[in-house]
Protein 1
Amino acid sequence: MSIRAIDVARTDGGPQWVEAVATPAGVEVWWDEPRPHESGRRCVVRRLPGGTRADALPEGFNARNRLVEYGGRSWRPLPGGGLVFTNWADQRVYRVDGGEPVPLTPQGPSRYGDLYLPPGRDEVWAVRETEDVRDLVAIPLTGGVRVIAKAQRFLMNPRLSPGGGHVSWIGWDHPAMPWDGTELCVAPLGGDGVAGPYEVVAGGPHESVVQAEWRDDGTLYAVTDPTGWWNVHEIGRDGVRGRNLTPMELEFGNAAWKPGMTWMAVAGDRLVLVYGTADRRRLGVLDPATGELREIGGDATHWVSTVSAAGGKAAAVRATPYSPLEVTLADLDGGGLETVSAPRPLPDRALLPEPEAVTIEGVHAHVYPPLGVRGPAPYVIFVHGGPTGSSPLMLDLEVAYFTSRGLGVAQVNYGGSAGYGRAYRERLRHQWGVVDVQDCAKVARGLVERGLADASRIAIRGGSAGGWTTVAALVHSDVFAGGVAQYAITDPESWATETHDFESRYLDGLIGPLPETRQRYAERSPLLHAHRASGPCLMLHGLEDAIVDVGQAERFVAELDRHGKRWALLTFPGEQHGWRREETIVAALEAELAFYGELFGFETPEVAPLKLEGGK
């Protein structure tokens, strides 16, 4: 008995944003969830204090946006039960109050994200992106747009101070990424709703502020990393950093890939925090006055970067190695945890792997052993994207799909991964294509030395930047028998000119600035060294990908073919950077299984055979 691809597709992904709202009847919880069976749309769900759940977003609408292409916070509940949201089809902001959604913003090239409801104002604030220009704007709930502030090239986290006298935001400029260096800005807000000159109160070129929140007494808290770890700092009313409230070698923030992520929520005179490392993320309550941090997260091994507090409760999203991402309501005093999202069908517990967090030669990894295999087994190294990302320790049915068939999986949090402090992230500076490849190879060899993996049957796979590491490992090492690369970067110099604005200078820090380090780009390019591939490669790519153009895959397989290497390329209409549709998730997983069957020499009768081209 094995886990089916359709089982994976129907539990794929999880809630992305949550909101707790205090009402006279109790705390209601809002969240958005993926609907692979509805063409991959994200639907907002409302759960009333009595336990009743209902979709808050009508059919045909998709609460997503393309802010910095990865999307920002896409909805907020309105007082009284209404909703404002961004719609994927036209990128406009809409309001819905039980009837048909009404657009609040005009048609046009602009897109909006990181939605926020400023207290006491009948408007929603957002970051507006028009081509490569971003502004902080106010959108009245009756329609229209007013610019609040123009500042840095990238903006996020707009917040209104108590009393409405000031506005704060986080901004940064090229070539920095938000985990490199950002500025926390505070500006007076005039009677016309427009910000005056701003002051930078935290952050800088080598300090990353990822979230800031005001307390009712005017205290400003910020999640920032001057110590090398994202800790919670009290900024103070005078704009001078006061004190580090969590002076620990733990991360109370993470890489801000999507504007609107939250690791901190103000709950009266306390703070609710998501913190830990990529090996375990916790939920806790901090008393800023005493410094006491009390964990309330139970046995969960991962909490998502979204938390909201109201009425003595916190809404957040948790997972364990045996339960999927679930919306949870936590009692801040009693510590009780209540799952409020609908249960999802899961395979038998006996089919799920028991993961272990390990460190091999200084490299962090999560090992998921294969089911029913004794002695050295075939293994697949899973490489996360980013590369400033990480793989959490939690139930992943995509992993279990393979382990239930006798394939071991090791998720590698290579040097450069978020979740282990700045020094670990900085291991990848100017070393992309070197450190990540070496770290994956170290883990693979370590599994062999421990008697877990068969040295002749180890593959590597990943998506986006993980796809880059996959193809780079194939051409720059001899450890891997083959690879599966999803929406992968295969040539860094051409990608830097093709990709979107948010990541267009990312490679300055990962490889080096152009044109000064062009030789380094050439030396590391998988495309230019395809003739060295140690095994066949399966490439998978969405045809609407605006982050990594499908041409990256097409050119790479053409080079593999030219040099007599084996390959396959599957493309998916209607998909962007990642899979959202049920049929795509199923097709991609089944093709990957067929590839491993061909590579490792075992039968896969339940899926269609995969034809590998090339190999002349």
Protein 2
Amino acid sequence: MRTHKCGELNKDNLGESTALCGWVHKRRDHGGVIFIDLRDRAGLVQVVFNPESTDTFAIAESVRSEYVIRVEGIVRDRLEGTVNPNMATGEIEVLVSHIEVLNEAETPPFPIESDIEVNEEMRLRYRYIDLRKTSMLEKMKVRRDVTRNLRNFLDEQDFFEMETPILTKATPEGARDYIVPSRTHPNSFFALPQSPQLYKQLLMMAGMDRYYQVVRCFRDEDLRADRQPEFTQLDIETSFMNEDDIMLIMEDMMRNLFKQVIDVDLGDPFPRMTHAEAMSRFGSDKPDLRIPLELVDIADEMKDVEFKVFSGPANDPKGRVVALRIPEGSKLSRKDIDGYTKYVSIYGARGLAYIKVNDRNGGLEGLQSPIVKFAPAEVWEAVLEKTGAQTGDLIFFGADKTNIVNEAIGALRVKIGLDLGLLEGDWKPLWVVDFPMFEWDEKGQRWNAIHHPFTAPSCSEEELKANPGTALSRAYDLVLNGTEVGGGSIRIDKTGMQSTVLGILGIGEQEANDKFGFLLEALKYGCPPHGGMAYGLDRLVMLMTGSSSIREVIAFPKTQSAACPLVDAPAMINEEQLKELHIKLHKPIVKDEA
């Protein structure tokens, strides 16, 4: 039906006959001559209709935006003064000799190209129209290029691309499973995979050596900008490699990806930082290194002050007191500070103390804050020295349980860095290593795995049993601009160690056999040392396209309530289907309004 795509034509095609198909992007009638910007996936081209071609001109007069048409004509130069430098095809146009309307179109519910803000619910309801936007098309192109580049790289590194099951068994991996009832096995259920973790380990035990998969994963969890109930992951596993070997290959892959797709040099090598250092300096295990602000511990300076808000956490083994210096931050208004105080309350902080350094050498007189009176001059001098504060700076303080301080002041650090435009550089990758194996759940009074139950510790089995709270794992996360884009670990390859880890997590022998019996058995039959990594493909594309949400880079995403307005899912099923699945629904309880 066509000889070229719209965006492919240029001056090399001058004088050629061409046939084009696409959507009417814009139609303009200029003094008897009609111009149409014709659009397809490749771009736009201007096609021209002269009134001398009576029949063709009449049809051109009748078409409207988003009509699907086919035209035939001759490629020619645009007239002098009409060249459009903003279009790839802006130097040429097509003089049309024949037009055919392939399909008419109603007026779209929102303009295809416009600065008008469109409600996201509306965009998702008519996603097939939203995807026609140039901006959305470009994001889909980047996604295509990312996936192709990653596959090519891994193919060249002798990885096998292999598929793993979608209908599988529920296993604890940190989020709720999506459950699928089985018709052929009454009262039994499949689970959709949160990741192919166990299958890819089994592939290593099967001797596949190097595996990868671009795979759909499913997690029934609370959503936010970088989460979806179903998402795409690049899953990787290797045998006979340690963490350094794996991380070096992954670095090469990421450098190649960013250079080839968006012409960005990520640098070599990527810096590494322990989890403990990241939490100490930034209050986060995924720090944005573009922001030159750091948390400074001042508990030692605050242990003996009158101010119980500071001295209490300073003397609590589970507490933390930190200072966050904001260069030239004294220009922040009281309204700004109140706004940041409200912001940290989201993370459980009960307030946000501050000091404005109006004169670094002016002693207490040079400091402006309601809290200055609660500590002697030498304490504040020590704080100024430790933070490196100068005249014109502002210092925010956090004092509470360690986790609250880390979350609240760590988040404040990022927000202020973005608000004040303090970013240094465009791209800052970072490996975070030496994660703790476990974290203690106060509510449940049990240990939880930081990554997953199959991550290998860096200590012996005996040391792990004796001190689970201080054990480190052989895990590693790749962080880019404050977003965790990938994570992995060396896996447990011995039955005894795996049973010990499950036992520490409170998973007894019977439960372990019920849930992971196939894995524990497989470990007995010659398991190679192995490890791997998984990347959030949607998050990668989100960062590479400068999008604010992964919904912007997924063709048909769900809303924040995990619904699809396009097809109206999830939806009820009929009684016959319920009967086949041996499912009986409970009627919703309606409270008596009286």
Protein 3
Amino acid sequence: MKKLFAATAVALVTAHAASAETFRWAGTTDPQTLDPHAVNSAPVLGFLNNVYEGLVRRDQNMQVEGALATSWEALGSDGWRFNLRQGVKFQDGSDFNAEDVVFSYERATRPESDVASWFSTIAEVKAVDDYTVDFLTKAPNPIFPDTIANFMIMDKGWTETNNSAVPAKEEENHATRNTNGTGAFKVVERQVDLKTVLEPHSGWWDEATHNITQGVFTPIQNPATAVAALLSGEVDMINPVPTQDVARLSASDEVKVMVGIEARVIMFGFAHQADELKYSADAGKPNPFKDVRVRQAVNHAINVDAIVQTIMRGSAEPISQLVSSTMRGYSDSLAARPEFNQDKARALLAEAGYPDGFSFGLKCPNNRYINDEAVCQAAVGMLAQIGLKAELDAMPVSNYWPELRADNFDMYMLGWSPGSFDAEHPIRFLVTTPNPEKKLGSWNFGDFSNARVDELLPMIQSEVDDSKRQAMLDEAAKILQDEAGYVPMYVQALLWGARSNVDVVQRADNFFILRWASVN
């Protein structure tokens, strides 16, 4: 998989000088919000990378480079100093400086923010002068710059003037539908669930290499409709290409299919702490998923190889951990998945006191991940073979996240792409015991909790010796496997379709960056 990733993570054709063009692209999910601190999800962060910028950003090969900071250096073991870029303008013409960085940090770490966990190691942020900011850490943090590539800076004056100083996750404020970033493009029209229109930011500090005069994003949930729009030229790019249409589109001279391996791991999670089941005929009965043997039984009952071959048509990679083998901190010694073994699964259920199985509710999205509902339906059939009767409730992702945040599930599907490309990332967000005060576990919907993992996390974050750090990551991964905290299934494929006259860059985090696009 490492070789495949390296060969396909970036599909780039050098942009040629060409006439200015409108670029239209479609995805299955409309960004839930335009507030960069309100929702920590790929549709939001990926889209807003075109509008807002951070101190650092990732290039086409996922390497960190300067953006609003020109350089940074460690302050010994006390933190990091960022030297800011001078002369940068927000899209309303106001100046960028250290005040905006400190304000954005304070806003992003409020309890209402969904990205606060990015700063769990930070004790204080200080503006040294107008163009120097210190991020002081509670302990050494050697990978901090890598963890904040999606930390986007907002204009303090604009945000406060528009009464948006507090992020709005479920509600709305001015920043929900309006933007004022420093990025290459600005939002000029926003129709939720219909279209969002971007135009170049004429005052952008960097050199524009694209030839786009207007970008139009349209959410298209129906896969057949998206394919038809691509073939007709109504849109220039779709993401994703339905797996069943890859061969047909590849055979067309009018379009091209870009194939890669994403950083995203698709998994199932459980309600670990709920006392009772919430759905199905067994609602109100004691929650079986609190028993590790039941969770292990689910792991052995799901035939991931069959899902990859039949539903994903071979375009995904089975996985045993919450990160892929391309990520820093992946545990090579724990690469093997639990074997598909229905007899073993039934024996575990019987041992746990459920020889006849039970029924429960399974929550899944139907427009967030490739074939998400189909994978959940397949899992329902597989679990039925061992006596577990799953009542599937699949819904659009705009409804899905509120359901998970309200703990309205017995078992659920989740995809996770580590923003830092490091195994520490999912431990911090998905595995650590939820603790809003410490800004930890913000996406640990099922409330998995293990005291040793909680103890390991700060040591992992501060350890500068790679071998010692890897040993701790290995220990945490082993605990998670033994406890069956999640059921990691596969690394999702990247399947983009584009018109043949379009050049785009396919990045491993599945973010579409409009400034790298051109129409020839």
Protein 4
Amino acid sequence: MNLKRSFYIMLIMSLFAFLAGCTFETSKQSLSFDNNKNSSYYLSQADNSSGSVKVNWQLLAIRALIKENKLTQANTLLSNLPSDLNAEQKEEKLLSQGEIAVKKRRPFDLNQLTIVDLNNSQLYRYYMIKLGLDINSKDLNAQAHDYLQLEKYVSETEKRQLLNSTWNFFSKLKADKIGKVLVGEDDITLQGWIDLAYAYQQNNDVPAPQDDDTPDTIATKSQNQKQLLKQAINNWAIQYPDHPAKEIISILTGEQTLAVDANGKKVALLLPLSGSSRIFGETIRQGYIDAIKFFPQEPQQNVIVVDTTSAPMDALIQQAQEQHVELIVGPLLKNEVTKIKELAPAIPVLALNKVDKTTTSANKMCFFALSPEDEAKDAADHIYSQNKIKPLVLVPQNDLGRRVAQSFAAQWAQLSANSSQAYVQYFGNAKTLSANMNHNVGISLAGSPISNDEVSSGEMISAGFDAIYIYASYDELTLIKPMLDMGANKNIGNSSAVMLYSSSKSHVANASDDFYYDMNKTEYAEIPMIQKDNVNTKIPSNVQKDYSLMRLYAMGIDAWRLTNRFNQLNSYQLNFLDGMTGKLSTSDQCEVTRSLSWQQYIYSGTNSDSKSE
């Protein structure tokens, strides 16, 4: 009898242990975060669970909400978590609180977390939080060491992203700031990053163009500089053969290329070919079809052109599937890109616009757009590289203007490690500007500080600006420049202490001599295809006469080339293609970004011209 009872006790204990193990495994699995899942997925899992498993799903939902920048919702969910969390859940909660604090630029006590209790994934998040806190406190030495710590715990999928971020940090440090980084006697990796930054900076500056430089002279100077840079980087690689940065050497020397896919694709090109957006869609279509003339060595494509105004998006996707299309290129309009992302077709997509990052797509979806926000980031890079420390951004008083200002400010804050601030001033439309000018009302050099997430409405600052970036149309800029001179009671730009920079929006074909006179020595951003003295005869004459159309035409060509490399497109690839719209890179979520050409307006009487930078 006792033997029988003992048997039952052992059986029940074994079953209990098995069930407990299952519960533990379920809990453990529930805390495994999948970057491809959004917050809605995790919240639905939490709604269908209970107990400790429910808490795990809630913690994962909080992580997803933070990733989606839904911080208010994440905080609400955090505050509603039960108090009786287990050790792992407490660590997860603290990590999420730290990530929110960094995003909101608030203090956070990292000592609440015990490093020895964290796994590699959590340690990576720990040092990301520390990096964010050190960025907010402008501690360059700590930031340098944070990047090295992150390298120890980074996953393979995030390794390239971290390498690029690390290089972005070191490459932007000026000589006086590099000296603030403390290097241990045996810290070869850190010393390697510093030496690489020195080598790059000392050999990457093209001599400023002189007034008598010809296009051939400028090209020769640029080529000589590239050779010097390549030699300096190769010498560094010999000295540091095992350094992690060796994986990005081809990027630094400009040698990185992305090989074309093995075979041509069957492509559905989705564009608006009727209605109010017809001219945009038709010009991109023309560039896409003509691309083979510019790059005959690349694979041919079987292209089916589809008018997005002809049917709903789900019907167009169904049509593409029935025709065995391998890749969808487009659509162009933002609302259509949002719709196709929601539909998540089985066919991969190269969208020709960018949308909110808060949702993820089940299939591979990349984004390529002529974005003013990307152009503003490129402007921040260019202006910072010229050792400017206090930029003023002039933008129209509308939603696009605010987005441009925020994009510029976010990039500036990253470059300067928050050691200097970007400022903004808004202007009205051309009619308002003209009225003010007629009443002798100038534009003062004053602006409000811009934060990363919102434009401040604080007091206007009116001293110390050494650079002005203007995002305006041609008509607006012709009024803004003399109004700046009027407001300052002196000439702004040209040879003054305050440099002027403008966007491609104001660069037009056949600008007047008066415009060149006013804008003399002003630098402006433009796509490489547009060169005043080198208009390609392959470009249709109607496109040549309108730079806004030429940019769309160039976009069509670059979209065709991206299609030929689509299978190899991944996140975080820098300068992998010298495109017609700029040097192309990919950032997070396979967003293609552009680095533009910078040129100068040069007034020379009746023969006004532009010079490349």
